[in-house]
Amino acid sequence: MSAFPPSKLLAIPTSDLCVPESPESSATLSEPLAFSLIIPTYNEAQNISRILQQLTHLLDQAIPLAYELIVVDDDSPDQTWKVAQQLTPQYPQLRVMRRQTERGLSTAVIRGWQVARGKILGVIDGDLQHPPEVLLQLLQAMQSADLAVASRHIEGGGVSEWSPVRRFLSRGAQVLGLLILPSVVGRVSDPMSGYFLVRRSAIAGRIMNPLGYKILLEVLGRGQIQQVAEVGYVFQERKQGESKVTWRQYLDYLLHLAKLRSGGRITRLRQKYQLQRFLRFGLVGLSGVFVDMAMLYLLSDPTTLDWGLTRSKILASEVAVINNFLWNDRWTFGDISSRQSGWRKRLKRFLKFNAICLVGIFLNVLLLNLLFNQLGLNRYLANLMAIALVTLWNFWLNLKLSWRVTDVEP
Ligand code: GDD
Ligand code: MN
């Protein structure tokens, strides 16, 4: 046990999520450090001492006394922050932040960068899934780049035993990103990576406002990144604890892309409003499922009209589309349609809506077959994913085409 007491926890910045131009001047340091590495943690008490031991061993040889490690813990129930703090006497270059009011991986990283003293800022997962030794190649790459990303999708990269579903979701998210925000997501081969280094000057002074897990999106979208380097790495299997990734992170990822796509022009209010509009659109879609089912029963069930299935399904879908249009026109997009009065404009909106939904039904069947027959997903999970993706398609296209904000009376 060391004779020195554990160092104090770091004060948490409460200002905007903005990295200062010059590192926090601190009494103990005349020169800024070369490198600050943030380790965001949530319930990593079983991993934290091992990763700190590996990182210090590696960096003490590569850049002795010129680096610091900052653990940013979100008040983990397993007290990861306390385990890390008790290791500070053993690792003088380690500092610990315990957040109790804010939560979230991306903001944890930025809060760490805000108190960091290095000219190069980095992030690595605290669960040993990111091999520490790759840091040396990333630091090397930073000699001529503003951003060096550890990528699973280039030479030397890969994931260990990921399930086909996890591989599909990760790749699917990337494809969606390329569709929504090619200028950002298209700049790197692994936009989902949470293991990278960035030059302070490339992001300093820029207010960031990330969502969820994908801090790299925020850096690419808001930073002044000229030169990007990539280093291949194999994403390791977790040995202790479990991933905190849930569906919420996937939704956050899509919202994050949409926000970056707007270039931040959408104010927080409108952002909330768009989300509200999307949730209404989803609810209306759900009501359409019930209408579709009820109509299918009334038309095709042997105890009712007993019509043919295909004819019944086509009619049922059309009645559901009309139901959805009426609700969307009145409720979801009411603020826009109320400024597009007259039956002619309404009919135009309905025809566009109808066409988009019919394409959506076709896409739904296509995706369902791809997910079920090609990827071997469970049919109901496949259908749910297909419906979710097509709902996004329907919402976005209808917002852009059927209820186009530009097409309103002044
Ligand atoms: N402070 C803080 N707050 N840390 C968090 C939080 C949080 O809310 N959620 C997760 N972490 C920490 C975890 O403790 C871990 O060190 C790291 O962030 C990654 O979290 P995981 O839950 O292990 O994510 P994963 O293994 O599924 O990895 C995916 O996300 C990572 C982060 O973006 C993959 O996409 C990785 O490539 C990526 O690095
Ligand atoms: Mn992990």
UniProtKB/TrEMBL annotation:
GO cellular-component terms in the record?
Answer: endomembrane system; membrane
Q: What is the first-listed, main subcellular location in coarse terms?
A: membrane
Q: Where in the cell is it found?
A: Endomembrane system; Membrane
Could you identify this protein by its name?
Dolichol-phosphate mannosyltransferase
> What is the scientific name of the source organism?
Pegethrix bostrychoides GSE-TBD4-15B
E.C. number? 2.4.1.83
What this chain does, per the entry, is described as: Transfers mannose from GDP-mannose to dolichol monophosphate to form dolichol phosphate mannose (Dol-P-Man) which is the mannosyl donor in pathways leading to N-glycosylation, glycosyl phosphatidylinositol membrane anchoring, and O-mannosylation of proteins.
Q: Indicate whether Transcription appears among the record's keywords.
A: no
Q: Name one Pfam family in it.
A: Glycos_transf_2
Q: Which SUPFAM superfamilies does this UniProt record tie to the protein?
A: Nucleotide-diphospho-sugar transferases
Domain (GtrA/DPMS transmembrane) ranges: 280-402
Residues in Glycosyltransferase 2-like domain copies: 36-202
Query: Does the entry feature the keyword Acetylation, yes or no?
Result: no
The record gives the membrane topology as: Multi-pass membrane protein
Q: Where are the transmembrane segments?
A: 278-299, 353-373, 380-397
Gene Ontology molecular functions: dolichyl-phosphate beta-D-mannosyltransferase activity; metal ion binding
Q: In which pathway does it act?
A: Protein modification; protein glycosylation
The entry's family comment says: Belongs to the glycosyltransferase 2 family.
Cofactor(s) demanded: Mg(2+); Ca(2+); Mn(2+)
Keywords (A to Z) from UniProt: Glycosyltransferase, Magnesium, Manganese, Membrane, Metal-binding, Transferase, Transmembrane, Transmembrane helix
GO annotation terms (biological process)? dolichol-linked oligosaccharide biosynthetic process; GPI anchor biosynthetic process; polysaccharide biosynthetic process; protein O-linked glycosylation via mannose
